[in-house]
Amino acid sequence: WDAVYERELHTFQEYGDTGEIWFGEESVNRLLRWMQKHKISLDAAVLDIGTGNGVLLVELAKLGFSNITGIDYSPSAIQLSGSIIEKEGLSNVTLKVEDFLNLPTELSGFHVCIDKGTFDAISLNPDNAVEKRKQYVNSLSRVLKANGFFLITSCNWTKEELLNEFCEGFELFEVLPTPKFSFGGRSGNSVAALVFQKTH
Asked: Higher-confidence residue: 86 or 20?
């Protein structure tokens, strides 16, 4: 991932291109609409897990959210998102190089945690993916306040599989609509987008 973000950083510095928006612009808009619909307070603590180029943070800040943090384990991703946020003239965004599976204890107390593809990437880790997924759920439990919301967008997991992965300490709050496709007489979604609520 460092190599990917180093390339994107170079492209941003040279051409001003912010890079790829994971799952497309509609995925960002879907999350923003949900937060507005549910009247999430503009001073709610929001964590973007695996922020990448920080596009979601930029959009949250433009909507007026004032307590937003983006983390990524890739220093190049944080450098890229920092450059984009600076270019946009935004100052109410905190960026940190952090591995979500091994977080410092002071990173906690978030009302909303958002994941667009980070759980997918962790799940594909060839080195003990099952244990890494458990670590992810444990980290999420630690950083999210009781009754806080977790918004996840995934292209690797179905709704049912995500319900199983996040069954301990979380309950399904809402399924967000995503584009459908049909093939061979069957229809489905290429992306799952769910909102969980921490139960304790």
From this structure: 86
